[in-house]
What we know:
By secondary structure, the chain is of the alpha+beta class. Helix content is 27%, strand content 21%.
Amino acid sequence: MNTSDDYHRYGGHRPRRGMRGVVVVTAGAVLAGGGWLGYSRLSGGNGPDPRIGEAQAVLVKFLDAWKAGDASGAGAYTDTPDKAESLVGSVMTNLKPSKTEIEPGEGKKRSEGDVRFPFTVRMEIPGVGAYGWKSGADVRNRSGKWAVVFSTPVIHPAMVPGQTLALKSQETRARVLDRNGEVLQAPSLVGTVDESTGKGVSGLEARYDKQLSGGSPASKAVVVADRQSGGVVKPLSGTEADEAEPVRTTIDPDVQQAAAEALSGVRKNAAIVAVDPRDGHILAAANRPGGMNRALEGRYPPGSTFKVVTAAALLKQGMRPTDVGDCPKFAYVDGQRFENQNQFVLAPGSTFRDSFAKSCNTFFVGARGKLSDTSLHDAARAFGIGGTWDVGAVTYDGSVPVNNSDNDKAASVIGQARVQVSPLVMASIAATVKQGTFHQPVLVPDAVKKTYRAPADLDRTVVGSLREMMRATVTYGAGWALKDLPGEPHAKTGTAEFGSARPPRTHAWMIGYQGDRNLAWSVLLEDGGSGGSDAGPIAAKFLKGLR
C-alpha cells in the first residue's frame, strides 16, 4: 500500500473555486491502449540484494504500461488486475494527458519482504497544463512471482477506494465589459480564448490575458471525483479567481447593437465605428464578418472622405466655401487622367462647397496647386494622424506622407496614392470637426498611460466651414441617404479605388456626426461600390437604430 499522505501540484497552483462540468469514466470503464511519452527505463537497479532489482523490473513494467495508457497491461503486473485496469483506465480516459512521465525512485526492502518504491507522475493535460504528484507502491513476491500491491492511493495518494481523477471546467476567468459594467457583446473586439489551454488568443482576451486570467490560464482543474456519482470530492489543481480582474471598455451597448444590426445581412466585409467627440471614447466597433478587427486595425485608402482633410488644408490657405471652382469631367496631371464617379460634371459657377458636397474629384485635383508638398501631411496632424495612439487596443492610426511628386499630390487630395486610414481614424476625423479639436480615441481607459495630443489645432474659421460643407453633403449632396433623418446629420462620402483591376474595384465609405448628440461615426464597405449609394444606406440604418 502507499505510505505517502501528501501530493504536490506540479506548477504550484492553489485549489480553484467555481468549477463545473466533470466528465468521469465510471468503475466499469476500461481504456484502450495508447502511446504516451515517458521517462527512460532504469537499466537494472541491481543492488546488494537482487530481489530489489527483480521487484523494480516489475514496477517499471507497470509504470510503462500506465504511462502508455495500456490499462490492461498495467493491471497484469498487479495483484488485483481487474481493479488496477479499471482505475488506470478511468484516470487516463478522464484526464486525456497529451504527455505522461512516471519516474521511479530507489527501492527499499520492508520487514515483511515487500519492496517499497516511490515514484513521481508528471502529465501535460489539455486545459490544465502541467500537473504532477508523488506516490509510491509496494512490490510483493508470492509463490515466486513479483506483483505490484495495488490500491487506489497507488494512483494518487489523495484518493480512497471508490474515487478517481477527473477534469472540471473552471469559471474563473474575468470578463471584458462594456461601459455599463455588463459583458461586452462585440465578438471581434473581445476576441477568443483557446478552450484547450484557457489562454486568450485574439482581441482583448489576448491583450489582457494575464489580467483576465489572474495569472493562471487553466480552463480546467484536476479533481478527485466519486466514481459512481461523478461528484467532486476535492480539487487538486487550479487557482482561485481572486486575482482575475475584468477589462472595462468604453463601448456603449446601445450604440454597439445599432452598429451590429446595421451590418446584419451585409455580404461584403464591413465595419462601423462610433466615437464620442468630447473625449474620444469609442462607443461602438462592429465588424462583419467577425475575426479580423478591421474597424480598428484595417488599412485602407479613404477615397473622398479624406476631402475633409484636404478641404481643411485649402481653407487654411484662404479658400472659402463660396469660392467658385470648376468641376470638369476630367483633370490631367502629367499624362495621368483623373475623373469623377460616372464622369459627372457640375454646372458653371459651382462652388467649393458644391464640389465638396457632391464629391467632385476634378475640382480638388485642380486645386492642388494651392497646396505645398507638406500641406496635406500638416493638415492631417491636426486630426491626430501621424501620431501613435494609446487606445488600450491594437489600432492602425493612419498615414499621410509628404507628397513626393505632382501626381502623388493629385491622387492624395482625393484620398488615394499613399494615404492610408482605418475606420477608427475616419470616425475620429468626423469627431474632430464636430468638437473643433482632436481627442485621441480610447477603448480601455484604465490601460491608457498617455493619450496622444495633436501638435496643432484647427482654426475656428476652418472648423466652421467644414461643418457647413459636411451638412451640405447631406442636404443636397452625395449624402442624400441621410437627408430625411432627424438629428441633423453631417457627412462625407467616399469611393476609394484599390487593386489593379480595370475598371478599378472600390471601397465604399461614409463618415459623419450628429448635430444633436455627441456621436461621430464611420462606415466602411470593402469592395462595396459607391460611398453614397452603398455605404450611405448602411449609415442610415445605423443612425435609425440608435436609441
